[in-house]
């Protein structure tokens, strides 16, 4: 049984310039430095495949001189803001070698090596319980509305029920997806048909997407939140 990690990391960012490699929270090479350290330290992973078209990220990754790290120079045509996740699913299947594939992102700096180990262990166990994949989620148990009204409770029954009695909903936080190589090939997806929802602690699933996320993430690192 072998487990590969697919780490897509394209050049450029429309919201935060050089987001993936600019200094972050005292780390000279920023998010990519944190993420590669986490993944290379995870003993549950047999290989880490970094797919990028960023020369600076490639140079940093090469400087690590890790036999566990495989660098895939991605063509620019597969590294634009319009590149679909479906296209990357096919790429992940093509360039990894493990029987199982862990998909993650550099923008989840607080999803640590221990988090990956726990997720992989849970995934391997859950396949015997009817699940065929795993994805990390954030549990939401509050008053959720759309423009038509509440979506997770009925005000005709009770206008403001206790939140602990509400049926929870789950937001995919994109920190980790785990599925088999066979599922990638069969479904052209990074999950199967029956994914286990792996609830992450709030800080673990924190995703850096906007400038304010970047600033808040730096504050979290400096305040002692583990990476």
Structure write-up:
It is a single chain. The strands form two sheets. A seven-stranded mixed sheet has the order 3-2-1-4-8-5-9, sandwiched between helices. Strands 6-7 form a two-stranded antiparallel sheet. Helices cover 29% and strands 22% of the residues. It has six helices and nine strands. The chain has 227 residues and is of the alpha/beta class. The chain has a single domain, classed as Alpha-Beta Complex (Spore Coat Polysaccharide Biosynthesis Protein SpsA, Chain A), CATH 3.90.550.
Brief digest:
This protein has 227 residues and is α/β, with parallel strands linked by helices. 29% of the residues lie in helices and 22% in strands. It has a single domain, classed as Alpha-Beta Complex (Spore Coat Polysaccharide Biosynthesis Protein SpsA, Chain A), CATH 3.90.550.10.
Overall pLDDT level = 95
Helix content: 25-40%
CATH class descriptor name:
Alpha Beta
Radius of gyration: 19 Å
Main structural class: alpha/beta
Do you know the CATH architecture? Alpha-Beta Complex
| CATH fold description | Spore Coat Polysaccharide Biosynthesis Protein SpsA, Chain A
Strand content: 15-25%
Count of alpha/pi helices: 6
Q: Can you tell me the number of structural domains?
A: 1
- Shape by Cα distribution: globular
Low-confidence runs (pLDDT<50, min 5 residues)?
none
Distance between the termini: 28 Å
Number of strands: 9
Q: Which homologous superfamily in CATH is the superfamily?
A: Spore Coat Polysaccharide Biosynthesis Protein SpsA, Chain A
Main beta-sheet strand count, sense and barrel state: 7 strands, mixed
Oligomer state equals: single chain
What order do the strands of the largest sheet run in, or round the barrel if closed? 3-2-1-4-8-5-9
The H-and-E topology, N to C, reads as: EHEHEHEHEEEEHEH
